[in-house]
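Bug: token stream looks shifted between consecutive jobs. Job 1:
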Amino acid sequence: MDRRWHVMRTIPGKEAEMTDLLERKVNHELWRDCRILRKQQLFRTQGRYLLGRKNMFPGYIFINTEFPKELEKELRKARQFPKLLGSAAGDIVPVEEEDLRFLEDVCGRDLAHDMRLSTVRVDEEGQVRSASGALKPYVGRITRQRLRHRYVTAEVPLFNRRENVLFGIRVDGDPV
């Protein structure tokens, strides 16, 4: 069986603590990589925009393993580990191919990079009309835009439903 990405759920804000615990306590033969997916976002302070990072999916950890059943058994032994996402039976579920394509498009093949800012062009009414970067395929699906705060949300088919994903943006001409 090939190594595949799976998802674990934990308390939002405790993702780094859980990946550290996984690193220290679980046999590395059961898993290869563990990621907290992040995105770039601009923050306005004192009239300037600063580049920051935020978790893309708060409360979720992505893990690459070819031994999901064995990993699940190991995680169940220690109650401090994050709950695994899955069916009612508790099986861990691999990330679906379509979802993995989106994640790889925005975070790179090994899910190791931050989702970068998308550059947008805005019309006279202040509406986003085009974009480059991760947002480009979803310009027609924007559900909310906050240009002053430099983000938009767009409806993305993800995890067997339609998710409103927050994309960090920069407006064409921003100094950042």
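Job 2, same session, no restart:
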Amino acid sequence: MATVFVGTYTERLPHVNGRGAGIYVYSLNEGMLRPERAFRGLPNPSFLTIDPIRHRLYAVSESLEYGGLRQGAVQPWAWDSDSNTLEALHHLGTRGGAPCYISVTDHLLLIANYVGGSVTAIHLAEDGDIGQIASYMQHTGSGPNSVRQKSPHPHAIVPDPTGKYCLVPDLGTDEVYIYHLNRENRSLVLAGEAIKIHAGAGPRHLTFHPSGMGYYVLNELDSSISFLSWENGHSEVLRTTDALPEGYTGPRSGADIHAHPSGRFLYASLREISGIACFQIAENSGELTDTAWFSTHGRTPRNFALDPRGEFLIAANQDSDTLVVFPINKKTGHLGDPTQIINIPSPVCIQIVDLE
């Protein structure tokens, strides 16, 4: 049995009428979710990450003001896996507005501040509690989209499979920044020039292929997927694929992307068609082929997650207030009919943990 954590929006923001209570906890067993409880207190806990070894959940508060400053906040929670309860620990400001993504390594908590145009690294104690800010890196630049790219907008911060680097797709500058994770002083150091994605792409989220041979970037503004090589901190764009059906002429707004644990399939959520795109991944080249699209049975699919065994995909429909559980065909990667649809207000981020 796995545990599922869901972050929600709790307040009205320009892009969402947030109505969530906070962080929701579910049990997942054979494709069925069982509600456990909701934990209140943190405004807009929109993105979460889990450290299952230290039994800590970390959540950003996607806000523009905290402690009288223009910044968001982060909060760790102690997780009791036996009772599936969370205990809130102390807050810390992120030094940048609207933190929208958080990830964890064995020694650092990594945060992308979307409105602040910056990334923040925070010291972690041995027990997983947060310490002081170790690094704060301000991005600069802009892109050709006069509405969405007037300034930098880091939208994710993802450690590489070795834990030596982290990658930051910046929607505002059409770049992927590469940082070295310095273990000696627990800080971020730029590892060369940022990688250029095509103009107006708006890189948003990324996922590594399980083999480590490269990574896929979902570009929000044109709903394309760029595949980049990866070796010892060096990267280059190899190819880019349109994630939408041929002939599509409407608005474009890609959201999230994940590789299947087998490395054979890639999935991307597309808000404009309220769907999930499924690609076959060529074994040696990483090329994306045989695309299929599946409705999320709701509106505005934001993040989604695959369980560690690759048997189920859970999608969060932000504007229709639902979680939808899909079985995954092991041969094709295709999504079957939903096993369950659960009502939950303003869901954003899904994290699945299986300790077995």
